[in-house]
Amino acid sequence: MNERALCWLCERPLGRKVQQHHPVPKAKKGRETVAVHPICHRTIHANFTNSELARMGEDRAALLEDEAVAKFVRWVKGKPPDFHAPTRIGR
């Protein structure tokens, strides 16, 4: 049996709804995508500008150095794959 795919940000199994995140935004010429939960995708964009994301690129650890994102990941860790909640705007 194949192992379920994991979210790039929180590393929980992906659910029915999956979004593709560009670690380097398309506006900054990014082409690669990673699979994320919708709630994780909103959290990334609520806490970083496109310029900040472009500088970090595919470095997930750099995103987790931000306390708001690290706190979110700790909070969402035990939630089911299709968990949904409103996302606060970080900036």
Structural class: mainly alpha
What topology, given as strand order, has the largest sheet? 1-2
| Terminus-to-terminus distance | 42 Å
Low-confidence stretches: none
Average predicted local confidence, pLDDT: 90
**Broad shape:** globular
Radius of gyration from the CA trace? 13 Å
> How many helical elements?
4
The total strand number stands at: 2
Helix and strand element order: EEHHHH
Tell me about this structure.
Helices cover 35% and strands 7% of the residues. The chain starts with 18 loop residues before the first strand and ends in a 15-residue tail after the last helix. The chain is mostly helical. The protein is globular and about 35 Å long. Helix 1 runs antiparallel to helix 4. The model has no long low-confidence stretch (mean pLDDT 90). Strands 1-2 form a two-stranded antiparallel ribbon. The chain has a domain of 43 residues.
